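INFO  loader      accepted 1 record
INFO  loader      residues=293
INFO  predictor   begin
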Amino acid sequence: MQLIDGKKIASEIKSEIALEVEQLKQQGKKAPHLAAVLVGHDGASETYVAGKVRACEEVGFKSTLIRYEEDVDEATLLNTVSDLNNNDDIDGFIVQLPLPRHISEAKIIEAIDPRKDVDGFHPVNIGRLVLGMPAFVSATPAGIMELLRRYKIETSGKNCVVVGRSNIVGKPISILLSQKAYPGDATVTLCHSRTKNLGEVLRSADIIVAALGKPEFVRADMVKEGAVVIDVGITRVKSDQTKSGWKLLGDVKFDEVAPKCSFITPVPGGVGLMTIVSLLRNTLKASRKEIYT
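INFO  predictor   done
INFO  writer      dumping tokens
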């Protein structure tokens, strides 16, 4: 069993990005600029956005954080999106999800200029992804693909089972893994809460991507010997064994499943760390006009 070290790979990619940013500056060009819009004070969102700001500093990006209270109205948020779309100094931006119930996430996402949609959530970027065209790919699936690439994990002709059909992870990773490329060329089955005989389907998988948000759902009896397991889940649960009183669990029962795997990602220290660096890479691409020329 080999552990897929997301921390190590994320650190390598940050170093690569920092070098590219330094080269841009030496050429007299501006540093990439990423903006984030944060509504309310959701703990997970606060942590994630703080991590993005910190990562920007580490690689030499400029970053802007725009905050609103939970009761901000939709029109104000749409105006902010419009301002960011039209700000030439901003290369890319995100509106951190989830948003309060009184705001339509779809309306906000659709208002973002696809050329600045470094989260890869806009329908135009999703459509381009499906068609195999250059697009901003949502950060978590992009991070998974990079881990597979850097660990030289074979995907061509493999049976891959994705558990979870979210627009942010499940659907896009299923598309990426089935495309004619490397990593890719896999035969992909997308499973969800209505899938019958899920354990049987999982046991047929050479590669499992667990992205359903249920802690320790995937057990040893669902995984065949030698499988590659990518654990996207991250759930904070109470624990009397840690100083904080909390611990993070993935969707895979790691201690049970790991001995059966050829490769597996840990939680924490796996996919999660790749999400932010993938966002940075998208921002670098946006600054260079690589996707939309």
